[in-house]
Design a protein that fits this description.
The chain is built from 11 helices and 25 strands. The chain is α+β, with helices and mostly antiparallel strands and 442 residues long. The chain folds into 2 domains: 16-316, BirA Bifunctional Protein, domain 2, CATH 3.30.930.10; 329-435, Rossmann fold.
């Protein structure tokens, strides 16, 4: 596995995700705000993206991939070349042409729409992609939570009316709730400003975390599973009056208390209206033959922020604690030296454990688990047991399996978030994995 884990965190690391994701070999910092996703980290991101992809497809989203290098001309059409100047990375090529590295894709999608939309019959349209974003953060910090270059999932939707836009906006809101529930987060939905995207109220999806940079207020009923639960929540930046926590009443339901919390933003949704269409001349002909501007929406989730946020809220003093949904592997198999071996076929001159004609018990277990559709990280290194166990806890895969001379023909099973140990046969171990939903169809 590349690279090896580290015993010490980087000296400049302040946030938990920075310390543990670098130590565990999930990511590497090239410079401030710029990260390489290493093989373990990429496996996590791939699983996060698949959950997002499934829910985007379920509401009619079609996946594509748009350019990262944009011409100045398209941004001039909306005036955002100047309006968003302070967060954009701009460049000039050898022919004196000006470009910007993408920090968002509204203009690009609007250009696609005006090339392909003519009638109300062509609407609605919903497209999304997973792509790199570039934003000139004055102080990139908090590990992978705030970078100058990062991954985003952008969904964009185009509609014939405000009613149709807001109906789809509600669908996306529910899809996002499903995504963050599947990921296992304790999150709240809050109102926020639209920044450089819109002057309308927008919604953010905030993960509760003491390591978060945002401060949010929400109705205590938002966290309860009640029929009359209140959905009110707001980012601190738009709360006009200073709420007298902890005695403030919810400004929406007027019954329950307002809770104040630090949080990490992992998603946002924007009802953009006709602002972009009017400036970029993106129109369609309605049923009455009249020319109308397209109604537009934008919806984002940051998969790399999701990974960082998970580590912030799910760790202990030993390392990360992944959920089975986004863990890089389903199980971590540790083989301790001196374990059982078994005879190999005569045609194989040398076993993997270095014994002529013999192969390790761990190898056999590994092959059986893989054959049963279990994704396994197998540690067969010739190092001390304590070092293997420390790496296992640091990496944080949900299930640890140990085979050794002590376990004999059994497998020692322990969950990352529990001290309970079970001794199981190979068949029982595979059955356990199937019961917990971590064995794939093969």
């Amino acid at each position: 596995m590349f690279p090896k884990t580290r015993k010490e965190a980087p000296k400049d690391a302040e946030s938990v995700n920075h310390k543990l994701l670098v130590r565990g070999g999930f990511m590497d910092q090239l410079m401030a705000g710029s990260w390489t996703l290493l093989p373990l980290g990429w496996r996590v991101i791939t699983k996060i993206n698949q959950i997002i992809r499934e829910e985007m497809n379920a509401i009619g989203g079609q996946e594509l991939l748009m350019p990262l290098l944009h011409p100045k001309s398209i941004w001039n059409e909306t005036g955002r070349w100047d309006k968003a100047d302070e967060i954009m990375y701009k460049l000039i090529d050898a022919r004196k042409k000006e470009f910007v590295l993408s920090f968002t894709h509204e203009e690009v999608v609007m250009d696609l729409l005006r090339k392909n939309i003519t009638s109300y019959k062509d609407l609605p349209v919903s497209v999304y992609h997973f792509s790199t974003k570039f934003r000139n953060e004055l102080r990139a910090k908090s590990g992978i939570l705030r970078g100058r270059e990062f991954m985003m999932k952008d969904l964009y939707s185009a509609h014939r009316s405000e009613k149709d836009l807001m109906k789809y906006y509600g669908k996306v809101k529910e899809a996002y709730k499903t995504i963050f529930k599947r990921l296992g987060f304790d999150f709240r939905i809050t109102e926020a400003s639209g920044g450089v995207f819109t002057d309308k109220r927008t919604h953010e999806f905030q993960v509760l975390s003491q390591g978060g940079e945002d401060t949010i207020y929400y109705c205590d009923k938002q966290s309860l599973s009640l029929r009359d639960k209140c959905g009110w929540g707001a980012n601190e930046e738009i709360t006009n009056a200073k709420l007298q926590i902890p005695n403030a009443k919810c400004p929406s339901c007027r019954k329950s208390k307002v809770v104040k919390s630090k949080s990490i933003e992992v998603g946002n949704i924007f009802p953009l209206g006709t602002w972009f269409a009017e400036r970029m001349k993106t129109y369609f002909i309605d049923e009455d033959g009249k020319k109308k501007p397209v109604w537009f929406g934008s919806y984002g989730i940051g998969p790399t922020r999701v990974m960082g946020a998970w580590v912030e809220v799910s760790h202990d003093d030993k390392g990360i604690i992944w959920s089975k949904e986004i863990s890089p592997f389903a199980v971590h198999l540790i083989e301790l030296t001196g374990g059982r071996s078994f005879a190999k076929p005569a045609c194989s001159p040398r076993g993997e454990a270095g014994r002529p004609g013999r192969a390790s018990w761990g190898k056999k277990i590994y092959e059986k688990l893989i054959g049963a559709g279990v994704d396994v990280l197998w540690d067969d290194r010739d190092i001390a047991a304590g070092e293997k166990f420390a790496d296992c806890d640091l990496i944080g895969i949900p299930i640890r399996l140990v085979v050794s001379e002590k376990t004999g023909d059994k497998i020692e099973l322990k969950r990352r978030n529990s001290e309970e140990i079970k001794m199981l046969s190979v068949g029982q171990c595979i059955a356990f994995c199937r019961e917990k939903g971590i064995a794939q169809e093969v």
